[in-house]
Design a protein that fits this description.
This is Transcriptional regulator. The protein has 231 residues and is α/β, with parallel strands linked by helices. The protein has helices at 12-24, 35-44, 61-70, 86-94, 107-122, 157-168, 176-184, 194-207; strands at residues 4-8, 28-32, 49-53, 77-81, 99-102, 131-134, 137-140, 145-148, 151-153, 212-218, 222-229.
């Protein structure tokens, strides 16, 4: 039997398309058309993965996610959103979602995200409460461990703090002053190059030998942590 998936999506055409596509992949799919119905189904039945739209009638996906996590339901949740601003994505992840996908998306990518979430649960890997991800990079904020493409990466305490700060604010351009104040908690002299030095350390450990670069320099502004092929 395939994985049991709960799809909470109020757009009828999209819900039907996703349901048919997922069934063809061998999944068992149940559909809810509102936040309230989705919450009730998630509470009443066991699912391997929940796909949850963020914009829903009666109760938003964020509210549904928060309620499920408050009830200690640890089913992996993949949030679907048409709101691709960093603030909305952070809101979804902070509500307890394990991953997010911005509409419109490729069906193959959806399938890959589902398989990844299912493997994490089967392997006992903690959900988003302790796991931060981007591309193939994962940070466990509980154990303070970092992996990329499944390989462990050893970081110093300062490197780890910097990386965690960057990934929590992915897709947001951060000035050197912001990074200094939040990572080092000190108002450094503007002449210091400590941020540049540690960014260079991280690049060597995080991005070297990987086609998808995550740390990017924005000339005259600072740095941004985002997924970008071949950069």
């Amino acid at each position: 039997m395939g994985l049991k998936i709960l799809l909470v999506e109020d757009e009828a055409k999209l819900a039907d398309m996703l349901q048919r596509g997922l069934k063809q992949e061998g999944y068992q799919v149940s559909v809810a058309m509102s936040g309230t119905t989705g919450l009730e189904m998630a509470q009443s039945f066991t699912f391997d993965v929940i796909i949850l739209d963020i914009m829903l009638p009666e109760m938003s996906g964020v509210e549904v996610c928060k309620k499920l996590r408050q009830q200690e339901l640890d089913t992996p949740i993949l949030m679907l959103t048409a709101l691709d601003s960093p603030e909305n994505i952070v809101t979804g992840l902070d509500s307890g979602a394990d991953d997010y996908l911005v509409k419109p998306f490729n069906f193959g990518e959806l399938g890959a995200r589902i398989r990844t979430l299912a493997r994490r649960r089967q392997n006992g890997i903690p959900s988003s409460k302790h796991l931060l991800t981007i591309a193939d990079l994962e940070i466990n904020t509980q154990s303070k461990t970092v992996t990329r493409a499944g390989a462990a990466i050893t970081l110093t305490a300062t490197e780890y703090r910097l990386l965690e700060f960057l990934i929590q604010r992915q897709n947001i351009v951060l000035s050197r002053i912001e990074i200094l104040e939040n990572v080092w908690n000190i108002d450094f002299n503007l002449g210091t190059n400590v941020v540049d030095v540690y960014i260079n350390y991280l690049r060597k450990k995080i991005d070297k030998n990987h086609p998808t670069k995550l740390i990017h320099t924005i000339i005259g502004m600072g740095y941004v942590f985002k997924q970008e092929e071949g950069a």
